[in-house]
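Batch 3, record 17
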Amino acid sequence: MSQQLVDAIADMREEEALKLVREMVASDSNPMAILDLTREALDLVGKRFEEGTYFLPELMLAGEMMNQISEIIKPKLAEMPDRERHGKVLIGTVEGDIHDIGKNIVSFMLDVNGFEVFDLGVDVPPQKFVEGIQEFQPQVVALSGFLTLSFDSMKNTVAAIESAALRDKVKIMIGGGQINEEVKEYAGADGYGKDAVAGIFLAKKWVGIQ
Amino acid sequence: MNGQLTGVEKLEALWQGKLSPKGPDGNPLPFQSPEAEKAYKDRILRVKDAIEMKKLPDRVPVSVFSGMFPWLNAGMTMEEAMYDYGKCAEVFINFVREYDPDLHWGAYAPGSGKMYEILGYKLYSWPGHGVAPEHSYQANEGEYMLANEYDALIQDPSGYFTHAYLPRVFGSLGGFSMLPFLPGILEIYGLPLFFIPFGLPPVQATYNALFEAGAEALKWVGPIGGADGALAMFGFPSVLGGFTKAPFDVIGDTLRGTKGIMLDIYRQPDKLLKAMEALVPLMIGMGIANAQQTGNPVIFIPLHKGADGFISDEQFKKFYWPTLKEVMLGLIEGGCVPFPAAEGYWNTRMEVMQDIPKGKTLWMIDQSDMTEVKKTVGQNACLFGNVSSTMLNLGTPQDVKAYVKKLIDTAGKDGGLIIGNGAFFDQAKPENVKALVDAAKEYGTY
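Prediction for the assembled complex:
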């Protein structure tokens, strides 16, 4: 049944996956084991996304399945266990910009890849990023922006982090529809990602994992 | 009578109408000078030749289809541009006269902030209403159509928009949800029952809001539409007739939202496909009506959720492209020039999208690889754009000029190219925008 569950989730057979989970719960399977299988499946989904065989429909359906499975097994767990995490990422869409699709995809992929993600939401002023760094102590800060106005907001955010004497505590990456090397230089970031996969690659590199 | 004409004839009639422009009084448009009249006609023919791909224009045409740059660059806030219609129009006229492109696209982008207030518009935040005064409006994505409402949309798209969608995105139009089923009005028996809703306070409040919004829209269109006429007299044509959308984006952008439509691909693919089919004739009709009303043949189609990275090639071929193609073919049949804008990257889609009749469409290309685009979509269609927002914002005039020259060399040698920006931009260095126009004139002569 275990492999069946992993395959059902990873191959996007939602109804079958949920049915299997309900059956496993009914037959008193260890809820922790179900959670582990779900994570194993999400890992596969993340890999297929990175390989370019899966796209947004699969990421979003996988996220939905994860949420539904958590809801089913929650009553059986004393508490949701903490996972071992590779590192922490503070993420947000910069000031003046309320676009969040790209940011949410990167957050999801970071989570799947074992990062603890703290999401500040959209239209985030530079000071909020500074406070977020102080509170959450991330190794990586990820700035998202879709509009051309975000170039200046990114620059201002990096500058605010610098004046708060936190610049050498974090690596900063930027991403969004119009972002390229030039914008990275302009904003004073450490790297940029053309897509979510590139962002994950950077985050992994910066915290020193494969 | 018009109905018996072929698409080619209808389009030619629109072009001929453009070449003999009339003023608001129905008389021939009084140009500022014989030079302005010549410039106006030369520019239309230059663009027409580039689109039709039958013969080379005299040079590569150039245009700037910007976002809010004209207003921000003039020192206005977006809030002012959306509330002071006269100033909005004046600034746009000055922008076009100063930058001197072959085509302009009208001063319609800012729109009427006051009208959105009257309607209680929720789909977008605008300056002073959710975004800062100096920034442009931005969409609030949401699930405005619920997952279990496909049947209602499929059966009667207009009824669905009236009863369900409009009350959700306009706070002042809640009364629409109480309207009677109008195709039920068939006999005298029981007829008064159908009219009861119109006597109810929420419905009357909705109609009052509509009257007020309509009056505001008329205040807006005077100066904004007037800018087109004024610019024509100075020799600057617009060919933009209006817009329509790919059915996948109608559902993915504004009805179900990105997450909704992506889940529907797995959870209810057949309903999604049927709903998109139901939207095809509406999206065609909307484009044709816009073109006929304005006399301008080019119908803009912003493409969003079929871009590289959003869905797989298989999903693109099954869900995105077929109904977009139907819409484009329907527009062509109706005498329009479809003008899809491939925002972002669409490199993996170009081969599929090449399947359109030659010389009938204009494509705005953002960041896709232009050399590859020329070999695919560009074999059949005129290409516009590809100078990136980033370059216009952070590059130098020399960068822009070199890029324009490269574009002409790689994609413009045998026609079918209009130099322009790849995506809507709000911020840019003015000297870079000027360099874009100047470079096309300098390097683009055939």
